[in-house]
Every structure is written in C-alpha cells, then in structure tokens.
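Model: You mentioned two targets. I'll fold them one after the other.
Researcher: Yes, keep them separate.
Model: Target one:
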Amino acid sequence: IYEAIGRGKHSVVYKGRKKKTITYYAIKSVEKSQKPRVLQEVRTMHALDSRNILKFYAWYETTNHLWLILEYCVGGDLMSLLRQDMRLPESSMHDFGRDLVTALH
C-alpha cells in the first residue's frame, strides 16, 4: 500500500500494488461499522460489467476494517478533474457524457 489518494466520511482509498508485479489497484479501507453499506456496494459493483465503470476485484475483512480491491484509475475521478481545471473543453464533456450513457445502458 502506498499513499492515500482519497478520503470519505468512513473510508480511505489508497494506491496499492500487487506484490512482484507492476499492477496497481485502488484499495478502499472502510470502518467495520459500515459493513451493511459496504456489502451492498460489493453486490452492486460485482454485478456491473462495463469498461466505463470502475472494476471491483475482491474484498476482505480484518478486525477493524473492510478492504475493497478496485481498479486504479490513473486520471482520478471526474469531480477531482473539474475541481482542478474548473472548466473542460466541450469535446471532453461530450466524451464523458457518451461514456456515462454507455455505462448506464
């Protein structure tokens, strides 16, 4: 596990790497008190299969936390991108819109 790349009210997301590989993952650590919500998230993500939706790989439970192993997206999320740039070119917005519609289809 490397540095934290995101934080929520009950969770922290870290950048991680599978040992002896160059494959990176997003590793989400969630407070165990959130187990019902996390299990619903796991069921939902497990059922989704689209190149435009974050991939879910596995989850683990330890004494104090639940750990979700997710696809690591180098560019970050759309909200972070908008906060950073404040405005995106129209062509980029078209691309995001198309990808969103494709993911929901």
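Model: Target two:
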Amino acid sequence: YPALVNHNGRVDIELIAEQEKAHALHQQGLNRLLMLGMPSPVNYLEQKLPNKAKLGLYFNPFGQIKALIDDCILAGIDALSHEFQAQHELVIRDKESFDRCLDHVRANINESVLAIAQQVETGLTLAHQCQKKMKGKVSLDMVAGLNHIKQHLGTLVYPGFVAEVGFARLADWNRYIKALARRLEKLPVDPNRDRLQQITLDKVEQAYAAVLNKYHADKVPAELAEVRWMIEELRVSLFAQQLGTAYPISAKRVLSVLEAY
C-alpha cells in the first residue's frame, strides 16, 4: 500500500505491507507536507495568546517551547486535513486534492492552533500544579497512591502528546487531568479508598496490557487502541465521578470489550 512517510521532516513515498499502518503513516506524512507548505502560525500565536497562556505553555515538562508549539501546529493540521478529507469524501493522493487541502489548512490554521494552544495551556498549568503538590515528604499510606498518580500523569503529558491526543479529544484530555488533580486532593483524606479503587483499575489495565501484548506495536487494531480512552473514562468514574464521563463506563464494560480480542 503506497504511503507518504515522514522521516524527520523529509517525506518519501513508500510501500507498506499492512493497510492500516499505511493509512496512519500516510496521514502523518501528509500532515508534515502540509506543514512544510505553509507559513508558520507562530507569529499569530504570539499576538493572540494572552500572557497567562504563554506562561502556561512554559510548564511543558520537556523543555523546549518550540517543540510543544510544533506539536500544537501538527495537531491543528491533522484536524483540518481530516476535516477536508471527510467533507470531500476522499483520501489525498494527488497534487490537485493536496493543493485544495493546503488552501483549507492555510485558511484555518491560525484559529485552530490558537484554540489548541489554549486548551493545552489549561491542562499543562494544572499538571504543573499537581507536580508541585507531589513533591516533598508524604505519609507512608499515600506513597503507593502518589506513585500511581505520577505514572498516570506521564501517560497524559509527554513529548508529542498534543498531536497524538488530537484536537477533538483535548477537552477530554483536560477532564482527565482534572480528574487526576481531584484524586490527588482526595488521597490524604482517604488513602484506603484510593487503594481499593486502584485495585479495580489495576485489573483492567493488566487485562488491557495482556491483550496489547498479542499485537506488534504498529499492528494494534484501532478499536483496541480506543480502549486506552475507555480506561481514562473509568479513572474519572472511580476517582472524580462528579466531573462526569463521556458515556456510561465500568470495569466490567471495559473487560467485556477486551474479551473480543
């Protein structure tokens, strides 16, 4: 299956054996080509982002702000290119459709990246506050809970998380960080309850890991990959129920989905 493949900024056409992998790589390569073919929205962000939001982006725990901004830009391009392809019911495979898509992205990228950066800033600011709270001495009955929270935060904020999470899911991503913060608040009040909830979560995560182990990393079915987000919703229901979940969720429901694999 032919695909555009991104190699550190250089995009080549390659033949990929698996269709699903080819489709994913092609989209990534397309996004990179679109990025190379248009002016950067960075200056627009500089003008439009409030100072507070600019400061929040510096809470990126991976240092360089440029890498985070590029990640936001890629997320915007990905959302807009998907939007264009869905609207026109096509997959971009020729210059004419690419040029039309590029026009669409150019026309909308500034506002899209601004919206993404604002969402990212909100989440990173809260994540930074959580990290500060987790420093220093803690009582023994909180150690396990804090370790789980730290590990969880690392699955929500990492290099490249913006494009991987995607524009459409950033509001949920923020809710997951809020749920993590709520768990952190409640942990000192009732560490035993936190431990019991974690036991439920562990069973689901272990089952998910066991199913994922059946597949090569780049051959995981899309529906199975979505279980990751079901588990995030389960976390919300266990540790911050008042925030609400996107749909009814329980450990039993997640496990029943996994049984199909």
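Researcher: Noted. Anything on target two?
Model: DSSP finds twelve helices and two strands in the chain.
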